[in-house]
Amino acid sequence: MANTAELALIDIAQRYQHITPVPRMPNFAAWIDGVDLTQPLTAPVQAELRQALFDFEVIFFRPQIITPAQHVALANVFGPVSGGSYFERKPGAPELEMIVSDRAHPPSIDNWHTDISWKPNPPLGTAIQITEIPPAGGNTCWSSTSKAYDWLSPGLQQYLEGLTAVHSWEVSGFREALGKRGDDALIAAIKAFKPVVHPVVRRNPDSGRKCIYINADFTRNIQGVDRHEAAGMLRFLLDWLKKPEFMVHHQWQANEIAVWDNRSTQHYAVADYWPHRRVNQRVTFEEPGTPAAAATVNQQVLAGATLR
């Protein structure tokens, strides 16, 4: 066994009086039962939902039909709505990004990533609802980057804490998608969102846990060491984060909802269902105290147009 530290489980009965988290993995990923998201949430429920997110890093709600306004309200429990990424928006609800996969638009986010790590101040988290599911498949996997850090040897932990990494949307599929919109869109995106640098190990300010903060989609390279050493270490970490001990593999029902902490997790949307249809609605949210976004990413780069 790689990790010989004794596991102390979160004391749910002592910590929660208004909601019922049901863990799916030890101290990671939990169902939240008994919360009706179609109704206004009381202050105590909101406080415990935030605590559950920080305790378990990704939380799930059973199928519920919610409006765009209720979806945004759920995200606002955790922080102000972000400007999001380059995905198209739901008509009449620009806060909701639409990730629609079907015969004409094959799934394209089948890569391990942390949402929008290519911004100087990455968002706290994301709330999604899968409103349409394929006949089979279309699952999502989450990996706990705090668990991944905890299982490293002390020497490697110390080594990584001195390193930084470059993150950029340009190394992902977004570059090709923006290129299809023409040179103006691509150039605007390059000017608006330049590569950024983040520590390889970040401490989650709400849970206190240290987390590995690199991902396959947006991390371009590790800085501060020889490039061959950096490339080898990046490969190791990306492989390490895939250990099943750090992972939950979720099979969706239509209208289920998930909320996760981008600072402590990364995720992978399984692309095994094409040409069938899958519809994902998502709202990304910032850390509390962050000013509300003046414009969405699309408004900054595409003047309200979409990538389709």
Strand and helix map with partners:
Blueprint: H1 12-15, E1 20-25, E2 28-33, H2 43-56, E3 58-61, H3 68-78, E4 88-90, E5 93-101, E6 125-132, E7 140-144, H4 145-150, H5 154-160, E8 164-167, H6 174-179, H7 183-192, E9 196-199, E10 201-203, E11 210-212, E12 219-223, H8 227-240, E13 247-250, E14 256-261, E15 265-269, E16 278-285, H9 297-302
Parallel strand pairs: 2-3
Antiparallel strand pairs: 1-2, 3-14, 4-5, 5-16, 6-14, 6-16, 7-13, 7-15, 8-9, 8-12, 10-11
Order of helices and strands: HEEHEHEEEEHHEHHEEEEHEEEEH
Tell me the radius of gyration.
Answer: 19 Å
Average pLDDT works out at 92
Overall structural class, as computed from helix and strand content, comes to alpha+beta
Count of DSSP E strands? 16
- Major beta sheet summary: 8 strands, mixed
Helix content: 25-40%
Beta-strand residue fraction: 25-35%
The count of helical stretches stands at 9
Termini Cα gap: 47 Å
Name the strands of the widest sheet in spatial order. 1-2-3-14-6-16-5-4
